[in-house]
C-alpha cells in the first residue's frame, strides 16, 4: 500500500497519447501515491474504434467513452483520485457526476454542455487534417498546428520533438460531439467529490476564460470546488517547462482536501 493510501488514475485526453502523463506519474509515485493511466483497450486508432463502436446506439460517442472509463474506475476497491487533461478533464467531471472517484482534478478541461468552447476550439476541428482509418474518420494536427495551439508558448524547436513523441489521431465524431456539447451535460447541484479546475493563462486550445466559466457553474455544488490559473503556461501544463509547479500545487490541494493517512 502506498504511504498516502490513495490511488491516482490519469485519464487520456484528446490529440495526445497516454505517455504524455509519464512525468506526472513518476512525480506522484515519488510522493507516495499509487498511479495508473487509464488508456484505451488498444493503442491508437484501433483502441478508439473498439470503444466508440459499441452496441448502444442511443449513447453518444462521448457517453460511450465515459462508460468505458467508468467501468475501470468502479473496479478499484477504494475510489481513486481522478486526474484528466483536456477531454480527460471533462471526463473527470462526468465521472464525479456519477459518484465515481474520491476527488477530481481537471487540467485545461474541455467544457461541458452549458459552456461555449470558444471560436478557437471550433476552428481546431474544422482545420485539422482528416484521414479514414479503421472504418472511422480521424483528425490529426500538423506540426505547425501543434506548435501554434498546443505547444505555445514554447518555440517550434522545442515543440517539434514533442509532436513526434506525443501526438496521435482523434476521432472526428468524438471531437465534434464534444464541441457541440452532446453527452456532456453536468448536474452541478448534486453531491460529488472535491474538484479542482486548472487552466494555463496562455492556453490556445482551451482558453482560461472557458475553464473559469466551467468553474463558475461547478461552484453551484456544495462540494469543495477550486480554480487555479497558471500565468505563462500553455495547454501542455503537464509536460512543459515548469510542469513540477503544477504537479506540486495539485498535491498540496489533495492534502488539503483528503489529508494523509
From TrEMBL:
InterPro entries to which the protein is assigned, alphabetical: AB_hydrolase_1, AB_hydrolase_fold
Protein name (database record): Alpha/beta fold hydrolase
This protein's UniProt keywords: Hydrolase
Gene3D superfamilies referenced in this protein's UniProt entry, alphabetically: alpha/beta hydrolase (3.40.50.1820)
SUPFAM superfamilies: alpha/beta-Hydrolases (SSF53474)
Taxonomy, superkingdom: Bacteria
Organism, scientific name: Halomonas citrativorans
Domain annotation AB hydrolase-1: ranges: 15-248
GO MF terms, alphabetically ordered: hydrolase activity
Hydrolase listed as a keyword: yes
Amino acid at each position: 500500500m502506498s504511504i498516502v493510501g490513495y490511488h491516482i488514475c490519469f485519464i487520456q485526453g484528446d490529440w495526445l497519447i497516454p505517455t504524455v502523463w509519464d512525468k506526472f506519474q513518476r512525480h506522484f509515485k515519488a510522493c507516495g501515491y499509487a498511479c495508473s493511466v487509464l488508456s484505451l483497450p488498444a493503442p491508437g486508432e484501433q483502441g478508439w474504434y473498439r470503444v466508440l463502436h459499441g452496441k448502444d446506439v442511443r449513447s453518444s460517442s462521448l457517453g460511450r467513452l465515459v462508460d468505458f472509463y467508468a467501468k475501470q474506475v468502479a473496479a478499484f476497491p477504494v475510489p481513486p483520485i481522478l486526474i484528466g487533461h483536456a477531454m480527460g478533464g471533462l471526463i473527470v467531471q462526468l465521472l464525479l457526476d456519477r459518484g465515481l472517484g474520491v476527488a477530481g482534478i481537471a487540467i485545461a478541461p474541455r467544457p461541458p454542455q452549458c459552456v461555449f468552447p470558444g471560436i478557437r476550439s471550433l476552428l481546431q476541428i474544422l482545420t485539422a487534417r482528416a484521414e479514414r482509418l479503421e472504418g472511422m474518420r480521424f483528425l490529426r494536427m500538423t506540426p505547425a498546428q501543434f506548435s501554434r495551439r498546443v505547444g505555445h508558448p514554447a518555440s517550434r524547436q522545442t515543440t517539434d520533438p514533442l509532436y513526434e513523441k506525443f501526438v496521435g489521431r482523434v476521432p472526428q465524431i468524438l471531437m465534434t460531439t464534444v464541441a457541440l456539447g452532446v453527452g456532456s451535460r453536468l448536474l452541478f447541484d448534486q453531491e460529488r467529490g472535491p474538484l479542482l479546475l486548472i487552466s494555463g493563462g496562455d492556453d490556445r486550445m482551451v482558453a482560461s476564460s472557458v475553464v473559469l466559466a466551467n468553474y463558475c457553474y461547478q461552484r453551484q455544488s456544495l462540494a469543495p470546488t477550486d480554480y487555479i490559473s497558471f500565468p505563462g503556461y500553455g495547454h501542455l501544463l503537464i509536460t512543459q517547462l515548469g510542469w513540477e509547479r503544477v504537479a506540486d500545487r495539485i498535491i498540496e490541494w489533495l492534502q488539503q482536501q483528503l489529508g494523509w493517512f
